[in-house]
Amino acid sequence: MNQKLKLEELNRISVDEYKNADKFPLILILDNVRSLHNVGSLFRTADAFRVDAIYLCGITGTPPHKELNKTALGATESVNWKYFTNTFEAIMEAKKLSYNIYALEQTSNSEMLQYIKPQFPIALVLGNEVNGVEESVLKLCDKIVEIPQFGTKHSFNVSVSAAIVIWHLYLNR
Amino acid sequence: MNQKLKLEELNRISVDEYKNADKFPLILILDNVRSLHNVGSLFRTADAFRVDAIYLCGITGTPPHKELNKTALGATESVNWKYFTNTFEAIMEAKKLSYNIYALEQTSNSEMLQYIKPQFPIALVLGNEVNGVEESVLKLCDKIVEIPQFGTKHSFNVSVSAAIVIWHLYLNR
User: Which one of A151, A159, A161 has the shortest CB-CB distance to B47?
Assistant: First the structure.
């Protein structure tokens, strides 16, 4: 009765259909994300939610790259992406396209995710694994979002936290 | 005005405080998860939400392990865990402790996450990266949960999808 679905039964769209499909009005801006595994994982999540685009900034790796594809598993073919030498330029481009700029960070004024009423379209800035989102970048953001945490560690993995936020935005779209 | 919080300003609890703190009534059951990076990442997320325990089954790696700790970053010290030679035994233990058994999988009868009204306490079964949750294991579950997907790829990364479900359960606790 609870039969696992075969790959063809999942009825996923093709890369061509994806390119023409309506997108979720969300851009992910990767502010110097170091790990290619994280970048690949973010591509895979972005594909599933059909986000508008990923902006890869600074030291963030870009496709094609073997390590990146280990976790992207081909999602670099479907999701739109663009490289910027720095995060400032990526934010300026998103602002020009009328996106509201949110960042995921823990600051003195960050708002807990569960209370966020998203104003689309949104560009979500995700920070470096060690340093988070740059202070100078935070100044350019309309809203800083924080995920509540109750444990001993200081932060979530960036691809994990991004997925939580994207799910929350999807539910409140 | 939006000042990034320093590590000490995050006011995280210590491992000793964690051990004595109230837990979120959720066990993660890892059904033959192959990647140590995924296991470590699940520990880190489990720590943040203070889940009851992680049950590591079959080929799933156990702490201490260098590769696992690359992504767990010490969360194996705080989160309770237990090893089972097979997933069946882990589920029997959780059932004995009165946990409702949910699995994350795409089946003919899976319910979309956004409609799930969770009945706590919950043990959430997470499957192998390639094969998902075993059919024989699915038969033992009270509910099969699916995350909607709109892209070209067939599934989420397991640590990413687990985080989305845990967040949803946390919001609906």
Answer: A151
Number of structural domains chain A divides into? 1
Residue B153 DSSP one-character state: S
Residue B26 lies in a domain: yes
| Interface confidence: ipTM more than 0.90 | yes
CB half-sphere exposure, B79, CA atoms < 13 A: 37
Q: Would you write out chain B's pLDDT as a tens digit for each of its 173 residues?
A: 578 999 888 889 999 999 999 999 999 999 999 999 999 999 999 999 999 999 999 999 999 999 999 999 999 999 999 999 999 999 999 999 999 999 999 999 999 999 999 999 999 999 999 999 999 999 999 999 999 999 999 889 999 999 999 999 999 99
Which residues of chain B lie closer than 8 angstroms to A10, CB-CB?
106, 149, 154
- β strands within chain B, DSSP E: 24-31, 51-57, 81-84, 100-104, 111-112, 122-126, 143-146
Is B8 within a domain? no
For B64, the 3-state DSSP assignment is coil
Residue A3 in domain:
no
- Token pair recorded at residue A165: 């936020």
CB nearest B160 (choices: A3, A133, A159):
A159
In a domain, A5, yes or no: no
Q: Which domain holds residue B111?
A: 21-171
Q: Are A71 and B156 in contact (CB under 8 A)?
A: no
Cβ within 8 Å, pair B153-A74: yes
Q: Do B144 and A2 touch (CB under 8 A)?
A: yes
What is the model's pTM?
A: 0.96
**CATH code of the domain covering residue A85:** 3.40.1280.10
- Between the alpha carbon of residue B6 and those of residues A31, A107, B1, B10, B16, the distances in Å are 19, 9, 14, 7, 22
In whole angstroms, give the CA distance from residue B98 to residue B80: 18
